[in-house]
Fold:
Amino acid sequence: LKLKYYEEMDKRKKLHNIVQETKGNIRVFCRCRPLSKDEVSLGQKCVVDFDGSSDGDIVIANGGTTKKSFKFDRVFTPNDDQDIVYADASPLVTSVLDGYNVCIFAYGQTGTGKTFTMEGTESNRGVNYRTLEELFNIAEERKESVTYDLSVSVLEVYNEQIRDLLATSPSKKLEIKPNSEGQNHVPGLVEAKIENINEVWKVLQTGSNARAVGSNNVNEHSSRSHCMLCIMVRAKNLLTGECTSSKLWLVDLAGSERLAKTDVQGERLKEAQNINRSLSALGDVISSLATKSSHIPYRNSKLTHLLQDSLGGDSKALMFVQISPSDNDVSETLSSLNFASRVRRIELGPAKKQV
Ligand code: ADP
Structure:
């Protein structure tokens, strides 16, 4: 049994090293959605050239006026399905079982497929469900050598307020506090224990449905809030007696688009400012990590404060930059790809932890 366990750990360690070899600790995967029927009927054209996609290259060529190349760790074309996307994220995701804190976030303009990638649909499930399913299955396989407690919280950050999406009654104001191990947590947040894989989709749907409550327009509301799933893993190694706890954040960020000037007033202005502030706070945290600054401004937004333990140090991060293929969206597409390229240049330092 011991031998089998160590063999497996060895295999996983090698896999981590492969994942680790890609430059820096923040990997960036770019995913482009297909042109929609409406876009096609409006005569919009695809401006994305995928010729180099198998090497992580993507070119935005807008009729010769703009031609810009970007390189990422992986480029997914509109033909790449949820299986292919998850397969590449999987080694990183499962490293949470080996004691790493992990963070995966989907960034991009509204309508580019952030929710499709993270949440997916019942028949075409995304990263969130697949992650829980795989963690659960590995936990089952390993149960004779390690016991894992898996639990999940689903929350939303809207206008700098945290809302518990699994709470059955409206919760009082939720704040971020350090726990006894010095990790951030949110006292009072519901933690749903995952004991049975059949419950997982239901729990995720409960969270997703709760986003709509109290908003007039579900799509608009979702595009202006960050939806955050936190998977807590408490492991006890039965062979060594060692206990570890780690967490994995799966984040569907608010839309990164800039507002049309005519839209900027009242409630929309407040929302836009909050989104801008938190997405720039994310950018600032990432740049401070890159320059190895002694002060990392995690506290400048709820989003970065929540992600603090999973962004930086020996944690592992993956960003999906989601883009539209349409010529109508070129300027937002370039802005997202520029941001993602900066993120990809970040090196966070070596990862060490091992159960
Ligand atoms: P966002 O969360 O970024 O606002 P959505 O996930 O809601 O975007 O996606 C917008 C629309 O595009 C949805 O109808 C979604 O089903 C569709 N879509 C996004 N990505 C893909 C994809 N890779 N393949 C097929 N349809 C997609």
Q: What stands out?
A: Residues 18-24, 350-355 have pLDDT under 50 and may be disordered. DSSP finds ten helices and 16 strands in the chain.
